[in-house]
Design brief:
single chain; alpha+beta; 2 domains; four-stranded antiparallel β-sheet; two-stranded antiparallel sheet; 11 helices; 6 strands; elongated
Amino acid sequence: MIWLTWRQHRKQALWTAIALAALAALVVPTGLSMRSAFEDSGLGACLRGLGHAELVTGGDCHALSQRFDNQYGGMAYVAILFVLLPVLVGLFFGAPLVAREVENGTHRMVWTQGISRRRWITTKFGLVGGTALVLSVVYALGVSWWFAPLADDGLGRFRYLVFDINGTAPIGYTLFAVALGIFVGTLCRKVLPSMGISLAAFLAVRAAVELLARPHFLPAKTLSYAVDSPAMANRFAGDWINAKGLRNGLGELVMADAQISCGPAGGAGSGGSATCTADLAGQGFGPAPYTNWQEYQPADRFWTFQAIETGLFLALTALLLFLAVRRIRRIA
C-alpha cells in the first residue's frame, strides 16, 4: 500500500521538490544579503536600542530605515507570493487523493484486493499528510528567517498577509488545505471540480478568519499621548494598529487615521506647541487638550495569536478528515 501510494503521488513529490529548490534559490541568497545589509548599515543596532517601547523620545532610526527600504523594500511584494504556497499543496496533494481514485474507478480494484477502506484511508492520509507537514515546517522556518529583517524594519509580523507567512500559521494553513481538498474530493468525486471548489472554500475561510476572527482573538489595548509631548509612537515596535486618530479634550475622535506631533519631536506649527494647539482649535476640532490615540495589539502577542490561529486551523483539519472518512465509507 505504501509503494502504491508513492507510485500515485511521485509526480507531485517531484514537482514539489523542484518548487522547494526554486524557493531556496530565492530565499537563501536574498535573505543573507538582507541580513548583511541590515547589520552592516547600523540599522540592526539602532533598532535594538529602541527596543519595543510604545513611545520613544530619541534614537531616530528613520534615515537608516529609509536606506534599507530603498534597497530591499520591494521584497515585501515577493513575500505576498508565499501566501499561495499552502493552498497549492492542498490543491495538488489533497484534492486528487480521493477524487482521482473514484473518477478513474480504481478504488473498486483496491478495495476488493484484501485492502480495507480503513487501511487505505490511514495509509493515504498518513503519507500525504506527513509529507504536507514536513513541507509546511520547512516553508515556515525558511520564510520566517528570510522575512525577519523586513519585519524588524517596521513592517512587523502582525500585518495582513505578513502574519500569514510567519510563525506556525503556515503549518495550520497547509494541513487545512490538504484536508479540505480531501473532503471536497469525497463530495465531487472528480479532480478538476474538487480543485476549484477547494480553492474557493480555502480563500473564503482564510478571509473570514483573517478579517473577522483574528482582530478579536484578544481584547485590543489603547495608547494615548499628548500632541505636545516630546515622545512619539515607536513605529518599529511591531504592533498591530487596528485604528488611530486624534481626540480632543472631550474624548471625541476628530481626525481618523492620523497622528499629530506639536512637540519638539514633530515640530508641527512654527510657533511651537501652543500655536499648534491653537491651530487645531481654530480648525473646529473642539476644545484642548488634544491627544493622539491608537487601538492596537502589542507585538509581544504575536506568538499567542499564532497559537490561536494555528490551533483553529488544526481543529478544522481534524473535522474535515473525520467527515472525509465518513464519506469514504459510503462510497459504493
